[in-house]
# Entry
Amino acid sequence: MKKKRVAIATSDGRLVNRHFGNSENFLIVDLFSDGSCELICVREFKDKEEDCSNEQRIEKRIDMLKDCDVIVANRIGLCALEKLSDKIVLERQGFIKDALREIMELFM
# Structure
């Protein structure tokens, strides 16, 4: 059975509602070709704005999400997009369940 690991930028676990570079939380979900999904964990980023540059924040997120096949956020800057060129990247807003359904239809 095929599987895609999906990282979703969210503040509440229901909506895709955070910018990639500013998201403090990413919901990590395994999505299977039979339509089922499994919540793996929530990855938290605790960096403080004054402690690191924008590029450092992006690098931390990319490193912590390197095992993910798909990244979903409401916005992703060009710098991050270039560094995520080996991933499927979706800019979406709305319910997480709708984004997962779209991934199933397009990529599974």
